[in-house]
Write a structure and sequence with these properties.
The protein has 10 helices and 6 strands, in the order βαααααβαβαβαβαβα. It is an alpha/beta fold. Strands 3-2-1-4-5-6 form a 6-stranded parallel beta sheet.
């Protein structure tokens, strides 16, 4: 079983946000279909799959390539954000295993950070509503970097803010672009798939686990925690 195999030692954990900590990707998928249809275009699983984990800029480029220059991206983006804000205003669901994993990390005094492609207003609001914001020593958003995922800058920035070398950190992701970013930063990387399955290329860059419960079991095997 995956959980019976310990991870290499690590001194901190850097999490992606949507689809990894927050169970928001399926909600956003519904919103994307609704908004795209309302604008007179047809969303597909292929296009949406390539949006998962992407930055604002990459999504803009992707949708214009898919639907042509007539696609009103700014209108699409604004309407998606408006609807997501309304749906998440009262409650933001977390992924299974998040409370237990974060509590264990906090109890062991292992630093935690977030590296997300979402903009700061979205990230801070959603983490706050979910009751997770105060658990992290660093939060890196799209507004904090020049190059978003799949560039390693978000993960390199998180490690710098934690005061640690990237290779001592464990990264947890659910998207292809995030796995590529974390691996390029030199971090031990785990993918817990949400809406997008790993390809052979992605499997070569990370360890794939079925759930955060499996990750917790592997992370706290006796030889998984680095000496601090």
């Amino acid at each position: 079983m995956v959980s019976s195999l310990p991870l290499a030692p690590f001194s901190a954990v850097v999490f992606d946000m949507d689809g990894t900590l927050l169970d928001t990707e399926m909600v956003f998928k519904d919103v994307v279909w609704q908004v795209t249809d309302g604008l007179g275009f047809t969303m597909t699983d292929d296009v949406h799959g390539r949006m998962v984990g992407s930055s604002h800029e990459h999504t803009n480029k992707l949708l214009v390539e898919a639907y042509g220059l007539a696609f009103p991206y700014e209108m699409f983006d604004a309407e998606c954000r408006r609807i997501m804000h309304a749906r998440m205003a009262q409650s933001v669901p977390v992924k299974a295993g998040v409370p237990e994993l974060l509590a264990e990390l906090k109890g062991r005094r292992i630093p935690m950070a977030v590296a997300t492609s979402s903009r700061a207003a979205h990230a801070l609001t959603h983490l706050g509503t979910a009751g997770l914001l105060d658990l992290f020593q660093a939060i890196v958003t799209r507004d904090d970097v020049v190059q978003p995922k799949p560039h390693p800058e978000p993960y390199l920035t998180a490690a710098r803010l934690l005061g640690l070398r990237p290779e001592t950190c464990l990264a947890v992701e659910d998207s292809h672009s995030g796995v590529r970013a974390a691996h390029a930063a030199g971090m031990q990387t785990v993918m817990v798939p949400d809406l997008v399955a790993p390809t052979d290329e992605i499997r070569a860059l990370c360890r794939v686990m079925d759930s955060l419960h499996d990750l917790r079991a592997a992370a706290f095997a006796p030889d998984a925690i680095a000496s601090r």
